[in-house]
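2024-03-11 09:14:02 DEBUG pipeline.ingest accepted 1 chain
2024-03-11 09:14:02 DEBUG pipeline.ingest length=193
2024-03-11 09:14:03 DEBUG pipeline.predict start
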Amino acid sequence: MSIHQSDVDRLERRVASALHSGWKYLLIEGIVLVVLGAAAIVIPPIATLAVEIIVGWLFLLSGILGLAMTFMMRGAPGFWWSVFSGVLAIAAGVVLIGWPVSGAVSLTLLLIVFFVMEGVATIMYALEHKRELSGRWGFMLASGVVDLVLAAIIYAGLPGTAAWAIGLLVGINMLFGGAALIAIALRARHIET
């Protein structure tokens, strides 16, 4: 199957048209994300609890749905493992919702593990691509080192860091994501269709 340039051009025009017609929605979403991100950065403990409670509800609802589906398909292989998985998700959800501070510590430990694994993977990626990336592999290496440093800082400050780490990082993510959406919206506003 070959793709013709006219098909690519037509697709690009459709995307440009959709972006141009929806630029206001992108701008609104970007502004909301920037405001929420800034709020999360200013008061990270509240943002941490909010994220933790949302994750708790996701676990609880997915566990209930998983159990319901498991019992609807009783004859399927792995029934008891599926029951165990559903009950475990429900229990995790109840703990995260019922005891949010303890849940924040658990999620922070998970975040530390993520940063360590991401840091090591990024460092290995940088070292393996040292030749191909010429002068740019150093940025990748630095990114991996930053991940490891973040993990060490958060771990060294436990349990105190559990109160702010997740909220702060979510806030930074929302702030940058919102800024990116605003930039896209402002650019899409001027696209000629």
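2024-03-11 09:14:41 DEBUG pipeline.report The chain has a mean pLDDT of 86.
2024-03-11 09:14:41 DEBUG pipeline.predict end
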